[in-house]
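Issue: copy button drops trailing tokens. Both records pasted manually instead:
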Amino acid sequence: MIRVMLVDDQPLFREGLAFLLSQQTDLEVIAEANHGSEAIALCHELQPDVILMDIQMPICDGVEATREIHRRYPWIRILVLTTFDHDSYIWQSLQAGALGYLLKNTPAQQMADAIRKIQQGYGQLGPTIAPKVFAQGPISTPQNSLVSADAMSVSLNPRERDLLIQLAQGSSNREIAQSLQVTEGTVKNYLTRIFSKLGVRDRIQAALWAQKHLESIVSRQSSKEDQSVGNG
């Protein structure tokens, strides 16, 4: 059973959402909070598996609450659920530690599926949110990047580069495994190494890193390989 907390300052919305989620046999709404400060306090007491977090709330907004909960309880998964699709909200939420970002008009079944994926540690982005995150061009953000690894300091072998490209394209572990003709366990091992090299914590941040840096990495390492062949 996945234990869920709802954080939203609109009681009627929380009530409706709780009812929809109650139709899922593997989801249980264990708590509701009116704002971020209340959510932080309830986390200490109840330790939910997944939090559905609104953005704009009084006293303590969703971004600040996400940041504080992620700092104190990094094992709690946070899925932002809001009416706002502004670039700044998306980036700030992901930077703060959210694993996903959905709009409130998301169909109930898709929302339930997203909760399950989030609980497993997979990132989830709504269909109108994903293009904003994975767009080739820069997106407005208060910080330059979600990740800390310097592209010039990262060395990826050809298999890791191939896997990272597919990850950035949105492929699942199963799809990557089939493409590379390896097991899903091998893909997970590769991802662990890649995350460590890039200094990221999840698939979304790795994909964002790839969108920004991978072309220069491939070009730089291909040049080194060509020089090595020439010297040989």
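Record 2 (pasted manually too):
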Amino acid sequence: MSALSNALGDLPDPVFADLYESETAYLIVIDLPGVSSETLDVRTEGTHLHIEARREKNLPMAFRYLREDRPLFLDTDLPLPPTVVASEADGSLDRGTLTLRLPKREGTDETTIPITTGEGPGSAAET
């Protein structure tokens, strides 16, 4: 989980993102002003979430740039926590705000390892 949180913190300064966690899911909210569903690609690749977002800027007639700091694109890979079920993830884009819900796997992959005692190979009883 901290790898995802750290990766969100490493996004470019103009990108604002929040990360939430419940017992059943993670929720990522990213501000992407000017991005539409046609210029947004969100997918999982193995243990990473890939987000590519593009937008257009229109330079008003009779004006020129003195300063241009608003990026036109975001292209990032975020590490997914091992408990995420990527195939059940969903998202929405509303007025430039991308919301991704990443469900967690139910239960744990915890397995109890049986420990035996006795006269097995390598035991002190063989010597």
